[in-house]
Specification:
Strand order of the largest sheet: 7-6-9-3-2-12
Strand content: 35-45%
Number of helices: 2
Structural class: alpha+beta
Number of strands: 12
């Protein structure tokens, strides 16, 4: 066999090997993309820095989480239900039972902050390219906030039997907050934040990440 023929055969083998490897890599990428597109979407839930509370005969908590589908898939994530559970301090005997009452929107009309209902508590669709930020109103019929720290979970339930996503929530109610609730009635609301800067030096360590009214609004 001539040197030229040997070289040509060696080139043909290398070319065949390279073509095979390239084909396998392309097949692997195609399978990965297909599986990814057909898989159920993975979502992320971010809690807001602000919540609002109103209180008349019942307590109402307004929360606007940001729900994002992190991966592009052929399916659209469906949020079927959202539950809020807040635990009162041990000395408080009555456990609040919050339920997702409705969804709405806060707007400023003639210089006054006003809330209006936009929908019933219906499933929320979360496409990949469009994060959702529904303002959800949770109602605890016949129950009222008192001066205390309330801790609990916001649980996001999804379709397809997927495990719910739970986010911790903590809100600190001052005695002045309670007085302001009574003064404003069910039509008014108080704003609570969890990003106060700087954090007051006397803030207990377990309340640093809690929602609180502005320092000037609390006792």
């Amino acid at each position: 066999m001539s040197v030229e023929s040997h070289g040509r055969r060696r080139f043909d083998h290398l070319h065949l090997w390279a073509t095979t490897v390239t084909g396998l890599v392309a097949l692997g990428i195609a399978i990965f993309n297909l599986v990814t597109l057909q898989a159920g979407p993975d979502i992320d839930v971010a809690m807001p820095h602000v919540v609002r509370v109103s209180q008349g005969k019942s307590a109402r908590l307004y929360v606007q989480p940001t729900i994002t589908a992190k991966e592009q898939t052929q399916e659209v994530e469906v949020i079927t239900d959202v539950f809020l559970a807040l635990n009162p301090p041990p000395e408080e005997k009555i456990m609040p039972h919050f339920f997702w009452d409705e969804s709405g929107q806060w707007t400023v009309i003639e210089g006054k902050l006003t809330y209006r209902q936009t929908s019933d508590p219906t499933p929320v669709l979360v496409p990949h390219e469009k994060p959702q930020q529904p303002t959800m109103r949770f109602n605890a019929e016949g129950w009222k906030f008192k001066k205390a720290k309330y801790q609990g979970l916001l649980s996001i339930h999804r379709s397809g039997g997927r495990k719910p996503i739970s986010k911790e929530i903590c809100i600190v109610i001052s005695s002045k907050n309670v007085t302001d609730f009574e003064a404003s009635g069910a039509g008014g609301s108080l704003l609570f934040r969890n990003d106060h800067q700087p954090v007051p030096a006397d803030t207990p360590e377990d309340e640093v990440d809690c929602y609180k009214s502005l320092p000037s609004d609390s006792d």
